[in-house]
Amino acid sequence: MKYFGELLRKYIDKSGYTIYSISYQSKINRTTLQKAISGDRPLSPENLEKILPYLKLTPYEKTDFEKAFLISHLGKETYKKHMLIKNITMNEKNWFHEPVSVTYSHNPITINQSTVIEGLHNILTVVQNLIDTCTQNCDKPFLHTVSKFDSDFFPVLYSCFHAETYEKLNVIHTIPFIKNTFSNNEYTQYNMQQLSAILPYVISAASRITFYYYYEENDISVFSSFPYSAYMTTNYNTILLSSDFQHALILPKECNAYFLASQTQIMNNSKLLFSTKLGTEIFLSATETLANVRAAHILLKQPCVFRFMDVHTPLNVLEANQLPSDQKEALIHLINLRHDHLMNLEECFSYISYEGYQDFVEHGILYEIPKQIGRPFSIQERLLILNKILEANENGSFFTILLREKSFSPKRNVLLYDNSSLFFYHSDSQNQYHLCQIHESSVITEFCDFINHLEKHGFSYSLTESNHIIRNSMEELEKKYNARSK
Fold first, then answer.
1. What is the per-residue DSSP string for 396-436?
2. How far apart are CA 445 and CA 219, in angstroms?
3. Cβ atoms of 403 and 349 closer than 8 Å
4. Which residues contact 105 (CB under 8 A, 6 or more apart)?
5. Which ranges of 95-237 would DSSP assign to H, the alpha helix?
6. Structural domain containing residue 268
7. Domain of 50: which CATH number?
8. Same structural domain, 249 and 280
9. How does pLDDT run across 240-298, given as a tens digit for each residue?
10. I want to staple 450 with a disulfide (CB 3.0 to 4.6 A). Which of 85, 91, 140, 294 is the partner?
């Protein structure tokens, strides 16, 4: 709050006003303004709007000033967590360091005694060559890792496994999360940093790696208190890694049994972090997850159309596709079941990407019903759905609010449910969906808090503004429909 007060005083002085004159011009109580400058009391959003025109800020100064204003209300730690969540949803690689370039020699080696390797480049090369030995000599080569993912080490190492040479290599990476029973900020931020690091990699890489997560003891210091905090096991060796990945201890095969037993114990208590499904399979996963939900906060690339369809819409939309009749019936059943689950929600706040909204309004495109299995929605169907969205916004408990495209355009769907599940997915060009489901209540709480502050961050329109945009869309569609009817 103090930093905001200092900025406020600086910009008032720069504007040529005195505290007395700017409070008079902006109609802000002078005592209120003085307390904001001293840091004794935050400035209200209403008073911020009143004073901004008189400060004559440049675009850069205005951005910095509004950021300081948000921090004065939210606190520095909460603001940092919100920005981290924003980056997670937008697929921004905010946690990786500068990329490391490594040229692999594909030179299989054997290490039969304990050996120390130093230097990131040397470790990467030795590990890759050890794996080459496994792929050449073993029917079932494997690499099993237990480690955090907030480093370039693993993305660089794993990048070579896309080649056909490693087609039979079984790679499993298990990431430790912290069980955050007491809502410790440090633990929550650690868990979100792991998500922030791994999501861009998983979604952008055509990887054969299977990721799991498990809960560590309720003490984050375990990751820094040991000289070797991560380990990898191959068919012939175990590799212990320091937390900065600058030191490695290669152990011979005689040590493998102990570490494989430890990994088995961890795997027995782990959960699959990601799975990949075809477009039609997403209906089943999303529908099953919704079954017992009563309240939800969601970020979607498009409006939640399935809630607002009438009973005939799925049949009409799917009528032109080439699906066999039994598959079509199963898909229609799932769509209607999803509709029922969404109708049963007691409360839902859904925030929608403006780009995805426009694709639906202007072209009738729904990403979850690709052209391979259905046709675009007609103008009449779009008008019916938009009207129901508007009615729900005005009268119900299922709210559809549009995001400001230039400020915030999430690249993945995020669904937060009251039964403590963070469920989100991202489609790619092959109509596949990468799914992730987390049951960490503290992370879910932080995601919900971020969503509840979207308007305050300037990332979303208000409900009133969203309704105005929807009405305008309906008017444009009606004009288009009337023009075609003539």
1. SSEEEEEB-TTT---SSEEEEETTTEEEEEEE-TTSEEEEE
2. 20
3. no
4. 125, 129
5. 120-137, 153-159, 185-204
6. 115-272
7. 1.10.260.40
8. no
9. 999 889 999 999 999 999 999 999 999 999 988 877 776 667 667 777 778 888 899 99
10. 85
